[in-house]
């Protein structure tokens, strides 16, 4: 679960970016005493993610705004479903609506795409995990969205595990150094609680990596036949991760090879934001209510 202070940090940054000196339009056109009730409505089906983001966005703009989130993280919804309802000062609601929608549309898009991958590998041992290919500044929210879609998280950052990829290995073995010995020496320098993952792109690299003490071996861009051969060769001596060439058309066949983990960069770098809208009813003091659809505001 994303920490509340991390959500507040991200939302505050987004609000400051969107209205650095206030909302000139709202403060010019909307009476200070005007109130509104607004509903966040789904324009298409999906998986919801971002309940606490909705709450934080409206609260940080104006704590007088009452927020009722009607969908839980991970809930599936249909087009037309009301996901959240807010009531309070109209200026605050209109200032917050674009940021709330931007973030929740993004998170729900990631959750929805993740759920499709998870469904595609149902009945296999494979876990669908994300990568570090996230939107800068939004990693915490996108990782939560992956979890809300039924996926798992890979390492959060470069600080969390030792992950030797092809470029690391090229430097490590420059001059003909033995790969297994180089990995063992590296392992001696690691904290005893750290995890060692090594990427390989050929079956004949696997034994040396196992001898070097890898906890996870990533089989990168392997054919299906080579994935099956890699799983058989590793034989439970390390976690087997498949990466590269993964999409919704290929993921089921990759999972069927017996790998433990499938990392999918597309979960975060290619997810489409879902179409959600904020339908607002404005009630200005001394005036009759007027309906407005705010989801299309730029």
From TrEMBL:
Keyword annotations of the record: Glycosyltransferase, Pyridine nucleotide biosynthesis, Transferase
Enzyme Commission designation: 2.4.2.19
InterPro entries: Aldolase_TIM, NadC, NadC/ModD, Nicotinate_pribotase-like_C, Quinolinate_PRibosylTase_N_sf, Quinolinate_PRibosylTrfase_C, Quinolinate_PRibosylTrfase_N
Record pathway: Cofactor biosynthesis; NAD(+) biosynthesis; nicotinate D-ribonucleotide from quinolinate: step 1/1
Domain Quinolinate phosphoribosyl transferase N-terminal: 23-108
Quinolinate phosphoribosyl transferase C-terminal domain residues: 110-279
Reaction(s) catalysed (UniProt annotation): nicotinate beta-D-ribonucleotide + CO2 + diphosphate = quinolinate + 5-phospho-alpha-D-ribose 1-diphosphate + 2 H(+)
First-level EC class: transferase
Record flagged with keyword Glycosyltransferase: yes
Statement: the UniProt record of this protein carries the keyword Repeat: no
SUPFAM superfamilies xrefs: Nicotinate/Quinolinate PRTase C-terminal domain-like, Nicotinate/Quinolinate PRTase N-terminal domain-like
Protein family (similarity comment): Belongs to the NadC/ModD family.
NCBIfam families: nadC
PANTHER family reported for this sequence: NICOTINATE-NUCLEOTIDE PYROPHOSPHORYLASE [CARBOXYLATING] (PTHR32179:SF3)
Function: Involved in the catabolism of quinolinic acid (QA).
Official protein name in the record: nicotinate-nucleotide diphosphorylase (carboxylating)
